[in-house]
Write a structure and sequence with these properties.
Strand content: 15-25%
Largest sheet: 3 strands, antiparallel
Distance between the termini: 49 Å
Radius of gyration: 19 Å
Oligomer: single chain
Order of helices and strands: HHEEEHEHHEE
CATH superfamily of the largest domain: Winged helix-like DNA-binding domain superfamily/Winged helix DNA-binding domain
Number of domains: 2
Structural class: alpha+beta
Strand order of the largest sheet: 1-2-3
CATH class of the largest domain: Mainly Alpha
Helix content: 40-55%
CATH architecture of the largest domain: Orthogonal Bundle
Number of strands: 6
CATH topology of the largest domain: Arc Repressor Mutant, subunit A
Length: 131
């Protein structure tokens, strides 16, 4: 079974007509450089760093950080985090999330811990501009 993407094919042909230098720019997505002062999460390698300093995280701490960083400024409730990271139903104990966020903030260090902000009465969010 073959799937066709006519719109993408038209765009590719249009770019190809402009010349080889522009085609190369659109063929392979360039890696976006991450600021050295921020938090960088690499899900493929399951590694994270803060200010270019590698973090030693447990599996759950890494999953929690990766989930928060994947959607900056989105507020996640404790039950959403329990379902996404722990694969538990929303009836789980929200204090588990609080404990892991506290540990994660401690490992991020004083310069980056405020990037994981508490939204009182709701949950947590990742704010990359809070540094």
């Amino acid at each position: 079974m073959s799937i066709s993407y006519p719109r993408a094919e038209r765009q590719h042909r249009r770019i190809a007509r402009r010349g080889p230098h522009t085609l190369a720019a659109f063929s392979a997505p360039a890696a976006t450089p991450q600021p050295p002062h921020g938090i960088v999460v690499d899900p493929a390698r399951r590694s994270a760093s803060a200010a270019a300093r590698p973090l030693r995280l447990t599996r759950l701490e890494f999953d929690l950080l990766a989930h928060l960083v994947s959607q900056p400024l989105r507020v996640f409730t404790r039950s959403q985090l329990l379902e996404a990271v722990w694969d538990l139903a929303a009836v789980g104990d929200g204090r588990t999330v609080d404990v892991h966020v506290t540990r994660l903030r401690r490992k991020l260090g004083p310069a980056h811990r405020q990037m994981i902000a508490t939204v009182r009465g709701v949950g947590y969010t990742y704010d990359p501009t809070a540094c």
